[in-house]
């Protein structure tokens, strides 16, 4: 937990561990075959070149954590907003 002061207002910030994105979440935006190939390291040389990093299991984990954290943060903001509108 972290409290910061911004423009003389205390702001409460809670840091959470990013959940890993699920395949179901990934295929809402990407082709299911592309997701499968990325997760399994079966991408073409051109696809790997477009990503800009060599494929590795650690890279997959980083990607899933980044996407999962973004989705979780968006959901948390929406839930907070919705709770204020009740």
Layout of strands and helices, then pairs:
Blueprint: E1 2-6, E2 9-13, H1 23-26, H2 32-40, H3 45-51, H4 57-84
Antiparallel strand pairs: 1-2
Structure notes:
With 86 residues, the protein is mainly alpha-helical. It is 56% helix and 12% strand. The chain contains 4 helices and 2 strands, in the order ββαααα. The chain has helices at 23-26, 32-40, 45-51, 57-84; strands at 2-6, 9-13. A hairpin with a 2-residue loop joins strand 1 (2-6) and strand 2 (9-13). The longest helix has 28 residues, at 57-84.
Span of the ends, CA to CA: 26 Å
Q: Compute the average pLDDT.
A: 88
Helix content: 55-70%
- Would you tell me the structural class of the helices and strands? mainly alpha
Tally of DSSP helical segments: 4
Strand content: 5-15%
How many β-strand stretches?
2
Main sheet strand line-up: 1-2
Radius of gyration: 17 Å
Envelope shape: elongated
Helices and strands, in order, run as EEHHHH
Major sheet details: 2 strands, antiparallel
Low-confidence sequence ranges = none
């Amino acid at each position: 937990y972290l409290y910061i002061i911004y423009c003389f207002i205390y702001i409460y910030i809670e840091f959470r561990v990013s959940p890993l994105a699920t395949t179901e979440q990934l295929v809402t935006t990407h082709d299911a075959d592309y997701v499968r190939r990325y997760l399994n390291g079966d991408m073409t040389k051109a696809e790997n070149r477009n990503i800009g990093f060599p494929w590795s299991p650690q890279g997959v984990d980083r990607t899933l954590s980044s996407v999962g954290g973004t989705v979780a943060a968006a959901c948390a903001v929406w839930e907070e907003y919705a709770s204020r509108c009740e």
